[in-house]
Design goal:
Number of domains: 1
Mean pLDDT: 86
Oligomer: single chain
Strand content: 5-15%
Shape: elongated
Number of strands: 2
Distance between the termini: 43 Å
Helix content: 55-70%
Structural class: mainly alpha
Number of helices: 5
Low-confidence stretches: none
Strand order of the largest sheet: 1-2
């Protein structure tokens, strides 16, 4: 069914209204985006939360190490050194170490946020509880990672990474993941008090 729209440039524009049961294209005009469903939305929320939180984490590390150690490259060098022993363990710039450190950090950050998104979508808690759970669990994972897993991979790098900086960074990561997940899932979550 087409109806004339007000004239544009002397010609009436036609607007197409599909019949019943036919969805209209999305905000991209004639391009219809496929529906990803509830599971897809949860995974998308996890990826977005992971990318945002990991970006905040990376910026925090770069600024903190620049101020306390004189170089923003140190944390990424240390992370890279766990997988590539040729990476520097000081503040020297190395494009290979920077890229490896960033890729490893973003991979772990996004995977953890995906896990958080799936778990939070399957339990009925409010936004504040989501933020608290992700922040607390991130710190528990930091303790396990920083004191057990990382020393087993690379004791030198684990020891060089400032403990307080790492703890605060992981707390910040968990807080941001929780806030993003709580905001993105608002309106689709049942009330925990219902």
């Amino acid at each position: 069914m087409s109806q004339p729209r007000p004239e544009r440039g002397g010609q009436p524009a036609m607007v197409h209204h599909p019949g019943p049961g036919v969805s209209t294209p999305g905000p991209l005009g004639p391009v219809a985006l496929p529906s990803i469903g509830a599971k897809g939305q949860i995974l998308t929320q996890g990826v977005i939360a992971g990318l945002i939180a990991t970006t905040v984490f990376v910026i925090y590390l770069a600024i903190t190490f620049a101020v306390t150690h004189g170089s923003p490259w140190t944390p990424f060098n240390l992370i890279a050194h766990s997988f590539w022993r040729g990476a520097p363990t000081d503040g020297a710039f190395s494009i290979g170490a920077l890229l490896l450190g960033l890729v490893a950090t973003f991979l772990v950050g996004v995977v953890l946020a995906l896990i958080f998104a799936v778990v939070m979508a399957n339990i009925v808690i409010g936004p504040l509880e989501i933020i608290l759970v992700t922040t607390i669990v991130s710190n528990v994972l930091w303790v396990l990672g920083h004191y057990l897993i990382w020393p087993a991979l690379d004791a030198e790098a684990a020891e060089e990474f400032t403990h307080l900086t790492a703890w605060l960074g992981h707390a910040l990561y968990g807080l941001v993941v929780g806030v993003v997940l709580a905001v993105m899932s608002a309106g689709r979550r049942p009330s925990p008090r219902a």
